[in-house]
Each structure stands twice: as structure tokens, then as C-alpha cells.
Amino acid sequence: MKIKYRFLLLILASTALFGYAQKITVSDEISVRNNFAYDIFPNLGDRIVFYHDKGMEHNFEVFDQNLRFLQSVDVSFEKKGVFPIGVIGANDKIHFYYSYKDTGYVHIKVRTFDSNMRNIDTTTLSIRQRKSFDSKPKFYFSEDKSKVLLLGFEGASANLMMIDNMTKDVIYDDVITIAGYDIKDDFHKLTVGNNGSLFMLCNKANFWRNSDVQNLTLLDFSIPKMSQIYSIKAEDVIVSDILLKYDNLNQRIALGGFVGDDDQSRSVGYFAVSYQANQLPDVLELPIVKFDDQWMKGETGKKIGRAKEFDNYQVRELVSRRDGGVLLTTETVKEYAKRLNQAAGDNFNSQIIGRGNDIDFYYEDIVIFANEADGKPQWDKLLFKKQFSQNDDAIYSSHFLFKTGGRLKFLYNDEIKNANTVSEYVLDPLGNSERKSVLSTEYQNLKLRFRDAIQTGPKSIIVPSEKNWKINMVKIEYD
């Protein structure tokens, strides 16, 4: 990595307007041109580690807490070209889960590195015949990163391997078959609790593919060989978007999402509810909150009678409260493709003579719904935002939800351009909000990807800035 310049900016907001200050630290540029993917692991003791997945090569760059580069480490494995199942940072260590094939067998292993990327342990989790095991399982972990789940599929069955990430003991490794289910095709979402609880959301009737019959189910695999099945019902409406979360503080299962009629891009109501995880009823009746005319007028600006549906909103996150209540955050997302000028006189064969399409991305207002644990609404809040970009996959759009004690901060780019102001909405537990400016990127050559930010503490986050295949890590610390 070429060391260019490192600068420390102290951005003080006017005390008359905001009364706050942020310390902004920016790393040197990190090239990711040859990467398949990258990740950032903060809080490894006094180190921050940047991981490069280059396919056949795996490189880690180590930084101190002030984002000063310390060293670069290339990690070698038993065979070249191992498959990285998942990498997480926990307890001041990097835990690298991977698989490789050798003489008809699939080896599943995990390596543990200290904060300076010294290999301190290698554990074999499983060795199986290649024909009977998915060598590229899905990777999940609990909120406190103490439990890791590897999910593979064998025909219509699921292979569940739960691992204690601290001791590297395999808690269980079972193949689960449920009559009437093709778990691979029916699988939709999954959540893992800090205590090892495992819940899976399935769409057994394939209603996501516009089936006329909706049969959404929740599978409890906390004791894999004694799995429980719970039906989820939403009377007279179709669940069009849904999130699932395990509330570790209250030991509850939270569900939230939108419901509609036929057009799944238009919502007529929502739900946000939580259930005691060890006392789930056989049928989970979703308490639907319908959007009435007065509410729609306030949120859309349309006249009463003309706004019957909530358009182009997507669910973003479920936030669990200490009292078991649930906050559902949502955001407006619109995408339009525009065909560029074609050769005159020929409206056919556009793939041959056309110049392709421009894709416009609009990421706009945020709406938060706050409900009690039983699904009864308490308040909702509309936060105005308008972001437009073109042909960039919207990587600089959307927002980051920063959780700071009793407050939520929604950080986002005001505009998607080089010289930009970063703003935030600060939301209190009663739904009162305040909008503030955080920093300006003018003259700093930064383009911040807030949707990929990482919270490193109650008052700090790290945001990647990406331009021309180069990354800067940007650390924002609140006073």
C-alpha cells in the first residue's frame, strides 16, 4: 500500500445551532482493485484489521486505533484456493472459517488469529465425503458473535452445524428433514440467538413467487431433532416484505414488515410485533396496522381519497426495545432504467446497436414505526431525505442506523456527489427528532458508503469511503 497522506480533522459545529463536536480520522488509501470482497474488523484490542478477499489470496492489513498503517500479512492455508465461509472479529481475535476439497473429502476448518494476525489456533470442525456435503455453506452468527451457524443443503434437507465460537466446540451437526418441506427452496430468513436459539422463516407455499395461497411458517431449530413448526397468518392481506430478529435481552422473536393486496410494491399496512420465544402459539396471528386516509395524507402529501397505498417502501431493520416493543425502520427506494439513444430508424435489436441503459436510483424518506410488544402502534415518524444517483448501484445512498443508548441516529449523505454534506437525524424514545449536520466532504476527496458503516462503540463508527477502486477508512467519534 502506498502511504500518501493521513490527516486528522476536527469538525466543530456551531454551538448556537448544534452544540456538539466530532473527531474525524481518515486512513491512507487502500487499493481494492483486485479484490472479490473486503471487510473491516475494528476493536481487536488496539488494532483495526482490513481484510482483502482476492480469491486465491487472502491478505490482512493491520492499523492502530488512529488508522495508521502497521503491517500487511498474507495468510496461507493447507491448499491454495480455499473457500472463505465467513470471517468475524470477536474477543480481540479474527476467526476465519473456511473449507477446501481434498481426495474426495470436504474439510471444514476455522483458524484463529490474534490482533497482529499471528495464527494461534486451527480447529477441524468436520471432514465429509464431497458428494454428501455442501462445501459452500451459508454463514450466520449471533449478535454477540459467540455462536456461529453453518447452513448447508442436501436435497430437500438442511445441514445445521452450530459452533461455539469461543471454544470452537461443535454444539451440534445434524441433517434435518421436515415432511412436506423443501428447505432449500422454502428458506427465506434465519436468526441465531446468543444462547444458541435458531429460528428459520420459510415460505412453504412459495408466496414470494406470486402464489395465490400464502403459507408462511416459522421453524424453531433450537433443539434440531425436536424442531417445532409455527404458522404465520395475516388475515385478508399478503405479507409483501418481512424481517425476523431474535431479541437477546428479552428472549423474544420479533417480526416486522409490510402487507399489501396484489401489487407487492404498494403497502396497505404494516406489522411489528414480538413473541416470547419459549411460549410461541401454534399460529402466530400478525396484528396488522392498516394505513388510514388521514395518515396517508400526512405521509404522502396526497389528498384524502387519492392515497390508498404506501408506494415503494422497503423494510430496513428491526430494533428491539427494553420493554419488548419493536421499532420497524423503512425507506423509500425507486429504480428506473432509461434506454439511451439508439441508431436512427431501428427500434429493434437494441442489444446490438443500442448504447445500453442508464439506471437511476432514488433513496428517499425514512419512516419509523414504533409498536408495543403485542403489535399495538405507539407512534410513527417521517424523516425527509432525498438521494439521487445514476449507474452506481446506489452504494453511496441509503443510511446507517447508529444506536447510542436511548437515541437512534440515522446518518446519510445529503447528496450523492463529491462535495457533500453528511447529516443525521437524532430520534429519542418518544419519536421526537432533530436534524443536524455532521461533516462536509468538500476538498477531502471522500465518498462515504454509509450503508456499509460499522459501529465500533457507543460514540464511534467507521465508514468506508470508496473512489476509483481505493478505500479510505473514515472514523467518526462523537464527544
Describe the protein in words:
- The N terminus is likely disordered.
- With 479 residues, the protein is mainly β.
- It starts with 6 loop residues before the first strand and ends with a strand.
- 3% of the residues lie in helices and 55% in strands.
- Strand 16 and strand 17 form a beta hairpin.
- Strands 1, 2, 3, 36, 37 and 38 form a six-stranded antiparallel sheet that branches. Strands 16-17-18-19-24 form a five-stranded mixed sheet. Strands 27, 28, 29, 30 and 31 form a five-stranded antiparallel sheet that branches.
- It is globular and about 65 Å long.
- The protein is built from three helices and 38 strands.
SSE layout and pairings?
Blueprint: E1 7-12, E2 21-26, E3 30-31, E4 37-44, E5 47-53, E6 58-64, E7 69-75, E8 83-90, E9 93-102, E10 105-113, E11 119-129, E12 138-141, E13 147-154, E14 157-164, E15 170-176, H1 183-186, E16 187-192, E17 198-203, E18 216-220, E19 228-233, E20 238-247, E21 252-260, E22 266-267, E23 269-276, E24 283-285, E25 289-290, H2 293-300, E26 310-311, E27 313-320, E28 326-339, H3 350-353, E29 357-371, E30 377-383, E31 387-390, E32 400-404, E33 407-413, E34 421-427, E35 433-440, E36 454-457, E37 460-467, E38 470-478
Parallel strand pairs: 19-24
Antiparallel strand pairs: 1-2, 2-38, 3-38, 4-5, 5-6, 6-7, 8-9, 9-10, 10-11, 12-13, 13-14, 14-15, 16-17, 17-18, 18-19, 20-21, 21-23, 22-26, 23-25, 27-28, 28-29, 29-30, 29-31, 32-33, 33-34, 34-35, 36-37, 37-38
